[in-house]
Design goal:
There is one protein chain. Helix content is about 65%, strand content about 0%. By secondary structure, the chain is mainly alpha-helical. The longest helix is centred in the middle third of the chain and has 24 residues. The chain is flat.
Length: about 350
């Protein structure tokens, strides 16, 4: 009987765009594995990412607001799911490989730090080698997961994870779907969070942006996806038309001015910097205080890289907990006070 994997190959060949990355044409893994009868390699990669520890930690990592108390603020996990949904919608519209697109989207932020992009900027200053979350995301799947053995993902998924930023060049159109979806997602849900937090109102959005993209998150996302479809269908690229792209960039600039770089946001970043700087120095001086898996990695990668690995893996609340454990005195009681 024909395997389900082989049936999927035939379905892709019949229905996907000639510009799509077919599962049977993957450039493979660094370590050769026996194929799965039920799943393509891209489907296996998606499953490996969903079940890895780094993916589960995303639920307690900041997107914009540090350790928010409300239940409805975006976290790094909900951002990832947003990106996966938008990227799959784009891939479906363009007849691209949805499985590959989803795998890249689910893995694209695995290397993000606690405290969002503030944490990334802080670790970039602390580490002599610098720090970029896309590079760290690749390091998570290549090295850090499974106690230092990595997930052994396919070339195409790894490439998409590494090159998901706007300035990068993914090797596949599916990687380009994720890159575009990432920008669509974070601009819109960060705006919703800012409104929810009372930092701004929808009426504060400049009229030219509202006219071009729409007032609500649903309208803006629909405008962006529709633009990608009209501009990219049947072509060897994935991007919005010029007017929609320019309006999206104006909205992004507006968010930096009114949300990301405000005095209140900077004040919280200063607190995060003091915490991460203190822990970076502590673990660099005392490598044996690291968890056993990370101690083993220092033999190959050096202490500063591994301390960055450990700190970037932390959730917001675990970073606060670890800082308090290391630097805040615990109370004690006199035994015979009276």
């Amino acid at each position: 009987m024909q395997s389900l994997r082989e049936r999927t190959y035939k379905i892709e060949q019949a229905f996907l765009s000639p510009f799509a990355c077919m599962s049977k044409d993957t450039r493979g893994r660094a370590r050769v594995e026996q194929p799965c009868e039920m799943r393509t390699d891209f489907q296996r990669d998606r499953d490996r990412i969903i079940y890895c520890k780094a993916f589960r930690r995303l639920k307690n990592k900041t997107q914009v607001f540090f350790s928010p108390e409300g239940d409805h603020y975006i976290t790094r996990l909900t951002h990832t799911l947003d990106v996966a949904q938008i990227a799959r919608s784009i891939a479906r519209a363009l007849a691209l490989n949805e499985d590959l697109t989803e795998a890249i989207a689910l893995g694209h932020d695995l290397g993000h730090t606690p405290f969002g992009h503030s944490g990334e900027r802080i670790l970039a200053k602390l580490s002599p080698a610098g720090f970029k979350h896309n590079v760290q995301s690749l390091r998570v799947v290549d090295v850090l997961e499974k106690d230092g053995n990595g997930l052994n993902l396919t070339f195409e998924v790894r490439d998409g994870i590494l090159n998901h930023r706007k300035s990068d060049k993914p090797a596949t159109l599916e990687g380009q779907c994720v890159s575009v979806a990432d920008r669509i997602a974070y601009i819109n849900h960060d705006l919703d969070d800012a409104v929810r937090a009372g930092i701004l109102t929808l009426a504060d959005i400049p009229e030219d942006i509202r006219s071009a993209l729409g007032l609500t998150s649903r309208e803006r996302i629909n405008t962006a996806i529709s633009s990608v479809y009209r501009n990219s269908y049947g072509k060897n690229f994935v991007k919005m038309d010029k007017l929609t792209e320019e309006a999206s960039e104006r909205l992004r600039a507006f968010m930096f001015e009114r949300v990301y770089l405000t005095d209140s946001a900077r004040g919280e970043e200063e607190k995060a910097e003091r915490m991460l700087s203190a822990m970076f120095s502590y673990f660099t001086d005392k490598p044996n205080a690291l968890p056993a898996t990370y101690i083993k990695l220092t033999e190959k990668y050096g202490i500063e890289q591994v301390v960055c690995d450990y700190l970037s893996s932390m959730t917001d609340r675990y970073a606060v907990y670890t800082f308090n454990r290391l630097f805040v005195p615990t109370g004690w009681t006199f035994q015979n006070e009276q």
